[in-house]
Amino acid sequence: MHYVISDIHGEYDKYLQLLEKIDLKDQDTLYILGDIVDRGPHPIRVLLDMMERDNVIPIIGNHEYMAACNMKFLLTEITEDSIKQLEQEKQLKQFSLWMQNGGQTTLNEFMQLSLEQKKEVYEYLIDFMLYENIEVNQKEYVLVHAGLSNFSPLRPLDDYELYEMIFKRADYTKVYFDDKYLITGHTPTMIINNHDHPGSIYTKNNHIAIDCGCVFGGKLAAYCLETAEEFYI
Fold first, then answer.
1. Mean pLDDT score across all residues of the chain
2. Can you list the positions of beta strands (E) in the chain?
3. Torsions phi, psi for 168 (to 5 deg)
4. Mean pLDDT value of segment 37-60
5. Does the pLDDT at position 79 exceed 70?
6. Which residue in 102, 108, 31, 32 sits closest to 66, CA to CA?
7. CA distance 225 to 206
């Protein structure tokens, strides 16, 4: 079976409960569409668990991007040059933006790791995929964190910039592909207009939106590609 989850945001207990609920087996494949880190209490615990699972395929979200940019600096040897780099406006803005968007919980757990573990977590993050295009039961799916900004049906997926896939929200009133389903996280389903069941998975216009806002008091959701079954914690 192929399952998709997104926007765990450090909710480690809910993450484990959801894996138990879907009864994830070694022969199954689990795609996680980004925003694993930040906001919730245990983002690094989630990452460490994912790193031990060969059948988990992570796709980068905007929060992984922010975290990795700052982890790279945190792993830099402290020298006069690195201190000067920290003092540069760009680096300070980058760190401030991360903190404003829930990065403190990730930072707290990251700093408790050994140096070797820090390097392993950073290397894992920067190896996340930008998107996945798969076929299951003769249906084709495009999996991406946020959406496809500046979309054109003639535009190859490899042509999209990172920010177009991880920061810009999908337009759920628009059919992007006639012959594919676009699966996204990033946008909590309770804020999607004209959603019949706010807070649950949204399936209209060849969209499957699966961020059900678990860190904001909503649910953590999983979607099975073979059966279209929805799971919630």
1. 94
2. 2-5, 29-32, 56-58, 132-136, 139-143, 180-184, 202-204, 207-209, 221-224, 230-232
3. -85, 125
4. 98
5. no
6. 102
7. 13
